[in-house]
Amino acid sequence: MDVFRVRPFDNISLPCQFSFVDSTEGLSFTWEREDIKEEHEVEDDDFYKYFVGLHDFYQFYPKVIYSFSNNMEQVEERNSLYEGRVWVDEEEIPEGSLTLMLDQVQFSDEAMYICKATNSRGRGSRKMKLVVEDAEEPQVQFSTVDDILVAKCISAGWYHMPKVTWRNRKEEDLSGYSKTEILEEKQDGSHRVVSTLHYPVLLHEIYTCHIEESDVLNRPVRSIHKVPKRKYHNMYNHY
Fold first, then answer.
1. Where is the Ig-like domain (predicted)?
2. Percent of the chain at pLDDT above 70?
3. pTM of the predicted protein model
4. pLDDT per position as a tens digit, 176-188
5. What structural domains and CATH numbers belong to the chain?
6. Helix/strand/coil (H, E, C) string of the chain?
């Protein structure tokens, strides 16, 4: 099984290719998250009542994140958390490619994904795992401050206690020469930041800006749903 790694807030393509796919005619295919269960078994009426209440309290999401049939994308049953962030290049479908493009990757996108396709010539599936790294590495830009060359990076994510680490191509830690400031703030206290490296910056040098959450109570959430296990012998034993 293939494993793909990506930095948060970057874009990634998840490849899926089938030899029996040569056009969109009669083709149906989906991209799904394997970790999302849409059907659950309950063993008694009491827990059934509890489970119905659980659906009202927590938000549940369908496992389908992209669906194609009848020569067009089907958006009705798609997971809303992926709206506007997933797409398939339909011009590549006749070449057998059903590659999913996932934009602005979130921590909650980490999961096992399955690509399923069927037409009159065959059917098939491909499974892969997407791993989202713990920190983002935004693009580094050069500018001048008081006629001095500096390097800057701006976080795409929101942090309560951002830890910014600057390194050069030799992996030397230059963080002590940097200054991090709040760019904008939310009501929950999280904020985006801009960090400026004041170390004698050289245009021909390579710098990386590494940003992660240092507050253990506000680490990124990697689960987009909370569901009970499939079998219960005690209606209160749901954790």
1. 1-131
2. 82
3. 0.73
4. 999 999 999 999 8
5. 2-132 (2.60.40.10), 139-213 (2.60.40.10)
6. CEEEEECCCCCEEECCECCCCCCCCCCEEEEEECCCCCCCCCCCHHHHHHHHHHHHHCCCCCCEEEEEECCEECCCCCCHHHCCCEECCHHHHHHCECCEEECCCCHHHCEEEEEEEEECCEEEEEEEEEEECCCECCCCEEEEECCEEEEEEECCCCECCEEEEEEECCCCECHHHEEEEEEEECCCCCEEEEEEECCCCCCCCCEEEEEEECCHHHCCCCCCCCCCCCCCCCCCCCC
